[in-house]
Specification:
Blueprint (H helix, E strand, L loop, with lengths): L1 H6 L16 E3 L5 E3 L12 H9 L3 H14 L5 E6 L2 E6 L2 E8 L4 E5 L20 E5 L7 H26 L1
Antiparallel strand pairs: 1-2, 3-4, 4-5, 5-6, 6-7
Length: 169
């Protein structure tokens, strides 16, 4: 449990009033607590993710594989891991998206989905941070719009990491 706690950071919502929120918060002892969900064990290519993909070989697995491949190709800095049973992609250890297969659908999820633009209205969910797109084999998805959401989430996490770095300097 201690290892898990050391591996995760606290996330906070954007300031909806238009003000800026610092990328990190000072905490007791002079340490800094990040607002990003971080994983120290993300790697370029995770065998656990590859196993997950093999185990989900049906129609839903194919959908998950297609969109996870789009996530993997966002940039050379993308890393991955299996988090809570879901293939997850990160930059600098900070998670930005995931896929997961259920009985009848696949979720393509975004850790900061509440803060990314969704002009086509694909995102579902009402949490403070996360959003997802629900994909079903018998329903068409606007692939261009979903690809845009993935790339927006990638660009967003890179901006957040830069803001953290700039704030620490």
């Amino acid at each position: 449990m201690a290892a898990l706690a050391a591996d995760l950071s606290v996330m906070r919502p954007r300031d909806v009033s238009g003000g800026s929120i610092p990328a990190s918060l000072p905490i007791r002892g002079g340490a800094v607590m990040s607002r990003l969900l971080r994983f120290t064990r993300s790697v370029r290519r995770d065998r656990a993710v590859d196993r997950w993909m093999t185990e989900h070989s049906g129609e839903l697995g194919a959908i998950a594989r297609r969109w996870f491949d789009v996530m993997r190709r966002c940039g050379s800095d993308v890393r991955e891991l299996l988090h809570d049973g879901s293939p997850t992609v990160c930059v600098g250890g900070a998670a930005f998206a995931y896929v997961n297969a259920f009985k009848a659908h696949v979720n393509v999820g975004f850790f900061h989905g509440a803060q990314i633009a969704d002009p086509e209205g694909l995102l579902e969910g009402d949490g403070r941070f996360m959003r997802h797109v629900k994909l079903r084999p018998d329903e068409d998805v606007d692939a261009k719009a979903l690809r845009g959401l993935i790339h927006s989430a990638y660009a967003d996490i890179r901006r957040r990491l830069k803001a953290e770095t700039d704030g620490a300097a």
